[in-house]
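*** Fold description ***
***
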Amino acid sequence: MIRWVLGLLAMLGWCVAEAQGRPLSVVFLNPGHAAEPFWADYSHYMQDAAGDLGIDLRVIYGERDTARILRNAHEVLERGELPDYLIFVNEQFTGPEILRLFDGTQVRLFALHSTLTPEQQALVGGSRERYRHWLGSLVPNDEEAGYLMGRALIALAGGEPAQMLAFTGIKQTPSATLRIVGLQRALAEAPHVRLQQVLYGEWRQQRAYEQSLALLPRYPQLSLVWSANDEMAFGVMQAAAEQGRQLRYAALNNSARVLQARVDGRIEVLASGHFLLGACALVMLHDHAKGLDFAARGGKDQVASLLRLVDDEAAGRLMRRLEQGDLDLDFRQFSATHQPQMSRYACSIDSLLR
């Protein structure tokens, strides 16, 4: 009964929002730490987009804790006024439980950054199926990024036999899994490069540092290190420096630190660009609320080709733009509401690199 009343209130609230022109309300269940540079910046860019689009955005951090993420979802549900849209991340496979919690309400749900795995969808269905208010998803091209990073790192070996270590995030995080799948695809094309071990560095510098202190002495011929983010790469670099090792690195992210490392050549392969993904998702939800379903412009479940390799020159340009704090980027340019001739969404970092 309570869930039915909440659903009715949410539906009435959404109708009033449309009629009175009040801001569209969106809650983002951010899975990261509030002090974690990537996720804090990610939310900051979402707030930039929300300002351009007239969206009232509330960000709640999950502190990379499954119980905390689900508790945050419960608290949103129990509030007197539900949001029009809820954005969630399938961090540590929490997606199905979040969908179940909001089933029966009129809150529209959207999966961001990582969506339900094929195995999960086989059990609970895909977007707009069993959970009809689950509108869809937007995820980065993680597998492709892992492949591109792997291929470029392998090329540094110059066709000679080489050994590699790979560091990925948390085992229950789909993006970590997909990036490793991409690396394995690159390795399948390069039998002369041997992957010695895959380590779960949990996205953290300290964890990768501790792992590397123990592992590097086991592999005196090791020359290549592939890392699914920047923090873990810096952990390996710290351990390697202490042991007098010279290694070559591939990493992924957009922190000022990693962009500077790419400019300096300390990291020779870098993928970046997915930090705008949340902002791009708000563009799609803004259009949906205006009656322009994003499914007609790329499908209800989209993979955004945001991640790309950046050379030292592009890394320098990107670093200077991000250092400004305000991106000086009007996200309405990516919206079908404001660009009615647009046939597909093309939200990207191109404008920042120009």
